[in-house]
Design a protein that fits this description.
By secondary structure, the protein is an alpha/beta fold. It has five domains: 132 residues, Response regulator (Rossmann fold, 3-Layer(aba) Sandwich); 139 residues, Rossmann fold (3-Layer(aba) Sandwich); 110 residues, 2-Layer Sandwich (Beta-Lactamase); 166 residues, Reverse transcriptase/Diguanylate cyclase domain (Alpha-Beta Plaits); 239 residues, EAL domain (TIM Barrel). It is 47% helix and 23% strand. The strands form seven sheets. The protein has an eight-stranded mixed beta barrel, surrounded by four helices. The protein has a five-stranded parallel sheet with strand order 2-1-3-6-7, sandwiched between helices. A five-stranded parallel sheet has the order 9-8-10-11-12, with helices on both faces. α17 crosses α18, α21 crosses α22 and α23 packs parallel to α25. The protein binds ligand C2E and magnesium ion (2 copies). Ligand C2E binds next to β26, α22, α23 and β30.
Length: 830
């Protein structure tokens, strides 16, 4: 290292005046270029080092000081990255401390012993060299474009920097024009230089014009430093106004300041760039970021997110307490902030709370908070990051709702019902009140669903659900268990009668016409009731018992309710057993057909037979159809059973024809379920073909209720059957609601007047009147009339008088097994 470039400035921290004096003398003698300034305390030293550009190259410090230690000084210098080499002097025997100092970043050390003062100049110069190389190694290179028309100055500067700040590289040009050529034309292009250094006297474009061009025309932000002559500071001031960053006055020692100034402006520019970058990031965050001081006054916010989330402009909240953003700020003050103030927020720890928009609207937000700290790591405020989680909340609530509610109707589902039931029972046990469980399903919902479509059925259920919700108290629960099955839980009931009242109210309201898809629809329900504590003290059992009671109600009469009774259990069990047996009966061939003759009243001849199914139960004996046909309907077994009956009857009728009983027809009862099967007509056709029976000898009996249940599709089916050539008759006429004129639409062959009318025909003038007018009307429509259940001669006479075409009943014959019927026909005489 040469010393020609200038003096080496050393600040010497030493509280012992003798040592200071000796050192000063030694240096004056050995190395006069080293300038020594001395101080005696750490505090005084720190003060001298306070300016951004300390006036020294090296600090030489004693290890033990009156107000601290040399290590503290070292830490201060290194933390602030001051461009100073540090050399520590220790007393003899204190080498260990010296090693600690080296580890902490000292550039060298010296032990006060023997002729250490002779070593001092060399130690200082090599420490400085060491400092500069390590610092250069540590430092980012700084690329400077220097416009300097004077070769001498340029050379001097270059040499100085090469020696003292080797990380600074210098490209020298002679004119302002060249400067402009070397720099980008617009801010989007990366500059090859970090700083521009301009001499105030330049030929052509001067420093001010170059500054103006760079800043105003090109919009570049590259730092600009001016070098002015002494007394020409005015130019520098003007340059600063145009956007230059700093200036230096060319006077004694300015080169020492140069690297410092260059680094400072570069650091400043980097900070500005970083600031801009972070500002952009800050502004682009979707979450609102609220920065407050320690008193929670808002000092900074990211405007766009603030506006989106809260509807405020930044000016409206700056200076306000952050409390204005919280919906429940009292609560939050006590809980939320307390949590955040106690701890630095653990990353990932979030607090959910409610916020209030400027409009007053409240929303759910998620808050993460951090302490705002200054560069000394002291807390100076809070940073709150607020995310709007309204959507997530809604979604969560929806999920929760889905888990506990029926998706279609929005009513409670089974788990929720059980839960509520449990709560009600719990309360009832303490308060002594009753709990009522009402379970019902809709009569014939399946028919509606099958004929009008599932979408229609769904709409009907929704409309009903709404109606039900209005019928009960808030404390009660309406639930849908699935299909058309509903439960109403009456939470607190005083008397069992009250439950009965609610039940009839519900049935009554359900029976009122509903409008679905512009179609008026009538539904009725059968309702079962169970009560706590009478019927059970367990929720699931109460529901099951109500279900049994409903089953009972259905059996009794549609649109009615029944209270549970223990005997029901027995009945139900029997039914279940029967159902099981019924399933196997077909395979086990336990069914057979009996036949009852149909007599032409005018001629007295047998013209046909009605086939009536019988079940020979292995234990119960002969089971009448009224006991198992409804069950077979419910379980769907009627379809295979009915097909079997049809096949068997047709085969039998064909046999009769072959045996010479020509013209004898067979009537077969068809259930509603069977009739609605999509392939019903095809089945009939197939059976006729397989049995070889001509369709004209087959008559199908269908009750009027089945016809009325689904008029449109029934008309189609009937038309197809008519085309096949089979006859159709309405069974049990008079028990349903249809009027004769209504039946005009159907291609009917005959009407069978129900047994109940025939029974009282002679005693009840009403029934007599009905029967006569039915016969008369049917005849005007071209229909034949069959009187059912004729048991007495008077009944027969009456019907004959009124012109009834045919008759059937015990008076002629009971239904008989196939072996007997043929005999009966042969012996027939009337
Ligand atoms: P239904 O079609 O009206 O059949 C007439 C019923 O009246 C038969 O009862 C018959 O035994 C009874 N009966 C006939 N004459 C008299 C009488 O003078 N006095 C009295 N009191 N009763 C008489 P059954 O055989 O018990 O059948 C009852 C019902 O079961 C039938 O009523 C029919 O609806 C149904 N059914 C019978 N067999 C079948 C079948 O194979 N398929 C379907 N789907 N239903 C059937
Ligand atoms: Mg019949
Ligand atoms: Mg009948």
């Amino acid at each position: 290292m040469t010393t020609s470039e200038g003096p080496l400035r050393v600040l010497y921290l030493e509280d012992n005046p003798v040592d200071t004096d000796l050192t000063r003398r030694a240096l004056a003698r050995l190395a006069p270029h080293i300038q020594l300034e001395s101080v005696t305390t750490l505090a005084a030293t720190l003060k001298r080092l306070a300016p951004a550009c300390p006036e020294y190259d090296i600090v030489l410090s004693d290890l033990s000081l009156p107000d601290g230690s040399g290590l503290e000084l070292l830490a201060h210098v290194r933390e602030r990255d001051l461009p100073l080499a540090v050399v520590i002097i220790t007393g003899s025997g204190d080498q260990e401390a010296a090693v600690t100092a080296l580890k902490a970043g000292a550039d060298d050390y010296l032990v006060k012993k023997d002729n250490y003062l002779n070593l001092l100049p060399k130690t200082l110069t090599s420490a400085l060299a060491n400092f500069q190389t390590t610092r250069a190694g540590r430092r980012k290179p700084l690329r400077v474009l220097y416009a300097e028309p004077g070769n001498f100055d340029a050379d001097l500067t270059r040499r100085y920097l090469a020696q003292h700040a080797p990380h600074i590289s210098l490209d020298v040009v002679g004119t302002g024009t060249e400067v402009l050529e070397c720099l980008p034309a617009e801010p989007t292009v990366t500059s090859p230089y970090d700083v521009v250094l301009l001499d105030y006297r330049m030929p052509g474009l001067d420093a001010l014009e170059v500054t103006k061009a760079l800043r105003q025309e090109r919009g570049l932000s590259i730092p600009i430093v001016l070098v002015t002559g002494h007394g020409s500071e005015e130019v520098a001031i003007q340059a600063l106004r145009l956007g230059a960053d700093d200036y230096l006055v060319k006077q004694e020692g300015y080169l020492q300041k140069l690297s410092m100034v260059l680094e400072n402006v570069q650091k400043q520019a980097a900070l500005t760039t970083a600031e801009v970058r972070y500002r952009n990031l800050f502004a682009s965050m979707r979450d609102a970021i609220i920065i407050t001081d320690l008193s929670r006054t808002i000092i900074d916010v990211n405007q766009p997110a603030l506006r989106t989330l809260f509807g405020y402009e930044a000016e409206e909240v700056l200076g306000q307490s952050s409390a204005i953003l919280y919906a429940d700020h009292d609560h939050f003050e006590q809980t939320g902030w307390a949590i955040f103030n106690r701890h630095d927020l653990v990353p990932g720890k979030l607090l959910e709370t409610r916020f209030r928009r400027k409009s007053g609207e409240v929303f759910h937000g998620e808050l993460s908070a951090l302490k705002l700290k200054n560069d000394k790591n002291d807390p100076v405020g809070n940073i709150g990051i607020i995310r709007d989680i309204t959507e997530r909340k809604l979604y969560e609530e929806k999920l929760k709702h889905l888990a506990t509610h029926d998706e279609l109707t929005g009513l409670a589902n089974r788990p929720l019902l059980l839960d509520r039931l449990e709560q009600s029972l719990h309360y009832a046990r303490r308060s002594g009140c009753l709990v009522g469980v009402l379970l019902f399903d809709l009569d014939r919902f399946k028919v509606i669903n099958d004929s009008l479509g599932h979408a229609f059925g769904d709409k009907l259920l929704c409309t009903l659900a709404k109606r039900l919700m209005h019928l009960v108290r808030e404390a009660d629960t309406v639930a849908r268990l699935g299909g058309d099955e509903f439960v109403i839980l009456l939470a607190e009931v005083a008397e069992p009668e009250d439950v009965g009242l609610v039940a009839s109210k519900i049935l009554q309201h359900l029976a009122e016409p509903l409008w679905v898809d512009n179609r008026e629809i009538l539904v009725t329900a059968s309702l079962g009731i169970s009560l706590y504590p009478k019927d059970s003290d367990d929720g699931a059992t109460l529901i099951r018992n109500a279900d049994m009671a409903m089953y009972r109600a259905k059996k009794n009469k549609r649109n009615s309710f029944a209270f549970y009774s223990p005997e029901m259990n027995q009945r139900i069990l029997e039914t279940l057993e029967l159902e099981g047996a019924l399933r196997q009966a077909l395979e086990r061939k336990e069914f057979c057909l009996h036949y009852q003759p149909q007599v032409d009243l005018a001629s007295g001849h047998i013209v046909g037979c009605e086939a009536l199914v019988r079940w020979q139960h292995p234990e119960r004996g002969m089971v009448p159809p009224d006991d198992f046909i409804p069950l077979a309907e419910e379980t769907g077994l009627i379809v295979p059973l009915g097909t079997w009956v049809l096949g068997e009857a047709c085969r039998q009728a064909r046999d009769w024809q072959e045996q010479g009983l020509l013209g004898l027809s067979v009537a077969v009862n068809i259930s509603g379920r069977q009739f609605r099967e999509p392939d019903f007509v095809a089945t009939v056709e197939r059976i006729c073909q397989e049995s070889g029976l001509e369709p004209q000898f087959l008559e199908l009996e269908i009750t009027e209720s089945v016809v009325m249940e689904n008029v449109e599709s029934a008309i189609m089916t009937w038309a197809d059957l008519k085309l096949l050539g089979v006859s159709l008759s309405i069974d049990d006429f008079g028990t349903g609601y249809s009027s004769l004129s209504y039946l005009k639409q159907f291609p009917i062959h005959s009407l069978k007047i129900d047994r109940s009318f025939v029974c009282d025909i002679v005693t009840d003038s009403n029934d007599a009147a009905i029967a006569s007018s039915v016969i008369a009307l049917a005849h005007t429509m071209g229909l034949k009339v069959v009187g059912e259940g004729i048991e007495a001669e008077e009944q027969l006479q009456f019907l004959k008088e009124k012109g009834c075409d045919m008759g059937q009943g015990y008076l002629f014959s009971r239904p008989l097994p196939v072996e007997e019927i043929v005999l009966a026909i042969h012996q027939w005489k009337r």
